[in-house]
Every structure is written in C-alpha cells, then in structure tokens.
Amino acid sequence: MTTRDADAYRFDASAGGATEQSVDTLAEHVLQALEEVGFCVVTSVLPDDAVAEMRELVELLLHFEPQNRHHTGHQRVLHLAAKHAAFHRALLDPLALAVWRRFLSPDAICSTFTANALWPGATEFYWHADHPYWTLTPPWPSMPLTGQNIWFLDEFTIENGATAGIPGSHRRGALPPYEGRPVEGSVVLTGPPGSVIFAHGAWWHTSRPNTTDALRCALLATYTHTFCVPQEEMRLQLDAIEEPGDELRRILGGDQYRPQRDFPY
Ligand SMILES: O=C(O)CCC(=O)C(=O)O
Questions:
Q1: pTM of this prediction?
Q2: What pLDDT shows up at residue 180?
Q3: Which of 23, 70, 94, 177 is deepest in the core (most CB within 10 A)?
Q4: Mean pLDDT taken over the chain
C-alpha cells in the first residue's frame, strides 16, 4: 500500500478558538475537502477531559462485552448513545452538526453510532464504503447519502492501525474490489486524540493492522437523511434515554416525521 502523510487533508480547530464564526469557517473548509477529496482530518476538536472520559468508558465496555471480540482483533461497542451520556459530546459536536446539516440537510439524523477498538495484533479490516452504499447496485447516486465521523480516542499512528482512505474514491460510484488488495494511492489518517475524520459515506477506507501492544479506540458516527433507513434503530436508543434534550432527540430521529422546514416546502 502506498502510504503518505495526511497533512494535505488536515485542518486545526484550535487555530480559530471555538467561536460560532470559527466553526462556520472550519465547516466551509471541511465541506470543500469532502467535495474534492472525499475526506479530511480536523485536529483539536474534542477537549482532553471529554476524550479521556469516553476512552475510559469504551475500555470498560469492551471488557463487559467480551463476546463481541472478533478473532481478528476487532471489537465493536454498539448502541453507544444509550450506554452513557458522555458519548453525546461527540455525536452532537457543533462542528460535526454544522458540517452534516449542510452536506446532507438541516434534518440530518444519526444512522449509527458505535465504538471501534483494535486490539494489539488486529489485522487490516477491508476496503469498503459505508452504509447504505454497500446495499446499492452501482452506479451510486451522485447526491451524498451519508457522512461519517471517526473520532480518535487514542493517537492514530501508522503502527496502531490509523484509518486509511483513497482520495477521490467517493466519486467512483461502486465498492472497491474485495480481491486484489492492496488498493493503491491511499493516505493514512494519523493524528492526536481529540481529532476527527470527516468523510463522504461513499469513500473507500479501511482500518489498518495494529502492530503495537496497545489498544486503538475510535468512535464511529454516521449521519444520513430522514428519507434513508438508518443502519441502527436509533429511535429505540432514544426511548432508553431519560430526558434526552432537544438536540439529542432530533439527531436520534425523534423528529424524523417533523421536518425543520416550514410549510410550504
Ligand atoms: O476504525 C477505523 O479505523 C475505521 C472503521 C471503519 O472503517 C468502519 O467501520 O467503517
């Protein structure tokens, strides 16, 4: 696999502080990268204390759910939204919502929200695009159906399995070849904890092998349109949350049949 540093696809959120204006400016840069490249990394988005709390919770959940540990060294934690309120910080991040509400629609909802852990020795996942693209017969529609955030709860490095992506692959309109790996021209998306990948749902990507002796943890949040069927039943999770608040209810599909646009549409 061709690997090169991700600097060409990287923005720093701390550069502008956390004002509404800087979120707006950064969102524009991200949207441009999504259009041209299909993905980018934004560093310094989540505060250290929020990352530390979520990282600790994920590790705890991994140990509570050993049945979900796959022999390849991959382990998912499902239904995160209902498991602990600390995870809502990532799901409702202001930059994420600003980007996805412009990229998709003001009505954008969450399609799936999980944690992904690579245990030491985990193998490469496989090159793929996200739901619902793998359910569609190509050619895929050019209008984006989903957008994905991958939140770094650990530093993402070449050695510990940082996600890799193929620039421009979101325009190919079909799944990558399952046989014939490795896929040429990939970029490895490294960065410190608290960084986040923004990606067009049709991008070709994979998690890489973890050759270190430490866990690599991430949160995966995918957003979609109200007219698409979410990958997970998010409204069941909403039902399990006491006093979710307006923003969380909206993003978990509680207002799915009440569009933000007023009549006439
Ligand atoms: O954890 C990662 O690095 C990427 C996971 C991924 O590709 C996915 O599940 O869509």
A1: 0.94
A2: 55
A3: 23
A4: 91
pLDDT of residue 3: 41
- Which one-letter DSSP state was computed for residue 159? T
Cα of 2 from ligand 1 centre, angstroms: 19
Residue 262 domain-assigned (yes or no)? no
* Domain, as residue range, for 68: 7-174+184-251
**Residue whose C-alpha is closest to residue 56's, from 33, 29, 77:** 77
Distance separating alpha carbons of residues 137 and 174, to the nearest angstrom:
8
Mean pLDDT of 15-20: 64
Domain count, the chain: 1
Query: Of the candidates 140, 137, 107, 145, which has an alpha carbon nearest to the alpha carbon of residue 222?
Result: 145
pLDDT band for 18, please (50, 70, 90 cuts): low
pLDDT greater than 80 at residue 70: yes
Which residues are CB-contacts of 125 (< 8 A; sequence separation ≥ 6)?
74, 206, 207, 208
- Would the CB of 163 count as within 6 Å of ligand 1? yes
| Residue closest by Cα to atom 5 of ligand 1 | 207
116 lines ligand 1 (CB under 6 A): yes
Distance (angstroms) between ligand 1 centre and the Cα of 264 equals 40
* CATH number of the domain residue 153 falls in: 2.60.120.620
Three-class DSSP category at 223: strand
Tell me phi and psi for residue 223, to 5 degrees: -115, 150
- Please tell me the residue having the least CA distance from ligand 1 atom 4: 207
The yes-or-no verdict on residue 182 having pLDDT over 90 is no
Asked whether residue 232 is assigned to any structural domain, the reply reads: yes
State whether residue 151 is helix, strand or coil: strand
Domain assignment present for residue 241? The answer is yes
Q: What does R_g of the chain's alpha carbons equal in angstroms?
A: 17
Angle between helices 94-103 and 20-36 (to 10 degrees): 50
Interval 191-206 mean pLDDT: 97
